[in-house]
Amino acid sequence: MTLFALYQSPAEAGLPMAVGERFSWFAFLLPPVHALLHRHWGQLGLFVLALAVLVLGARFLGAEAACWLYLPVALAFGFAAPGAGRRALRRRGYAPAGHVFAADADLARLAFLENTP
């Protein structure tokens, strides 16, 4: 079971958008590709900045240490991916509609509609 954050569009009265509050393996393995595909420009900028710091730090720390320091950066992006998705929905005008535990996003949307009067 996963906790899903639900966001409702004020313009349309359809199903809400569901964002799973879980670790994103795609964002962990390929942070820039994930940010580009989901249009998370702030996250992409932070990744480029972190990568530049690691490249410049490799001169002083060594290449092996810089490779090991890349892992916590990628791990942080894996944990930050759901938050970036929530911020993107809020920027598009979606309003928070609540949280629901469900097995997947479709069941979370249906559970929200069942509990909505």
What does this structure look like?
The chain is of the alpha+beta class. It has one domain. 62% of the residues lie in helices and 16% in strands. The protein is built from five helices and three strands, in the order ββααααβα. Strands 2-1-3 form a three-stranded antiparallel sheet. A hairpin with an 8-residue loop joins β1 and β2. α2 packs antiparallel against α3 and α3 packs antiparallel against α4. It is elongated and about 60 Å long. The relative contact order is 0.25.
Number of domains: 1
How many beta-strand runs? 3
Label the overall shape: elongated
The share of residues in helices is 55-70%
Sheet with most strands: strand arrangement:
2-1-3
Strand % is: 15-25%
**Can you write the helix and strand succession as a string?**
EEHHHHEH
- The secondary structure category is alpha+beta
Distance between the termini: 24 Å
Query: Overall mean pLDDT score?
Result: 91
Main beta-sheet strand count, sense and barrel state: 3 strands, antiparallel
- Low-pLDDT stretches: none
The tally of helices reads: 5
Short description:
With 117 residues, the chain is α+β, with helices and mostly antiparallel strands. The protein has helices at residues 25-29, 31-37, 41-61, 63-91, 105-115, and strands at 2-8, 17-20, 95-102. Helix 2 (31-37) packs antiparallel against helix 3 (41-61) and helix 3 runs antiparallel to helix 4.
Task: Based on the model shown, name its key terms.
alpha+beta
What is the secondary structure topology, with strand pairs?
Elements: E1 2-8, E2 17-20, H1 25-29, H2 31-37, H3 41-61, H4 63-91, E3 95-102, H5 105-115
Antiparallel strand pairs: 1-2, 1-3
